[in-house]
Amino acid sequence: MIAGIVAILGAISGFMPGIIQLLTLKANNAQQLAIAQLQLEATKAGGALQIDLANAQADIKQADAIYSYASGSTGYKFVDAIVVLVRPYVTVVFFHLWLLLEIGLFIYAVNNGYDLGQIAKLLWDDNTSAIFAAIMGFWFGDRMMMRGQQRLAATLAVTGKKD
Fold first, then answer.
1. Looking only at Cα atoms, what is the longest distance across the chain?
2. For 10, which of 25, 49, 68, 122 is 20 to 30 Å away at the CA?
3. How far, in Å, CA of 38 to CA of 36, rounded?
């Protein structure tokens, strides 16, 4: 009986290094797989960041190209003053035209007995809201874009990357 137990223990002890090696190999493979997955995720995140940076840099270059006509002085003060005043003047003229139309619509609605809800729908519809949002975005969104460009420049300065 002891001989049988010794034989069984001998057989088991022969398998033990193989079993330990199998478990070690399985743990190593799981660790290598986890590391590979983390590296893949890091590569994807880095690629997405590079794409975002490239898009932001392209937007900055496009804005620079669009506004390059107004970047320098012509040497004539009168011409420079007109260039500076054109956009604000057009905005003020169209704002006053819109205001005149809205006042006219308000007077028309009151004279024809519209109630307040109908007047509000008449004066501030979806199109008016969209136009108003576009104008505000044009005038004040540009400032937000400049802040975004400054943040991007700071990020590029910190990371040491150049165009």
1. 117
2. 25
3. 5
Q: What are the residues whose beta carbons fall under 8 Å from the beta carbon of 53, sequence distance 6 or more?
A: 152, 156, 161
Digit-coded pLDDT (tens) for 127-154: 888 888 887 887 777 666 556 555 666 5
Helices 126-159 and 2-66 pack at an angle, to 10 degrees, of 120
Query: In this predicted model, what pLDDT tens digit does every residue of 55-114 receive, in sequence order?
Result: 888 888 887 777 776 667 777 888 888 878 887 888 889 889 989 999 999 999 999 999
DSSP for 76-124 reads: -HHHHHHHHHHHHHHHHHHHHHHHHHHHHHHHHHHHTT--HHHHHHHHS
Separation between Cα atoms, residue 80 and residue 36, nearest integer Å: 60
Residue with tokens 């007077």: 107
Q: 68: which DSSP letter?
A: G
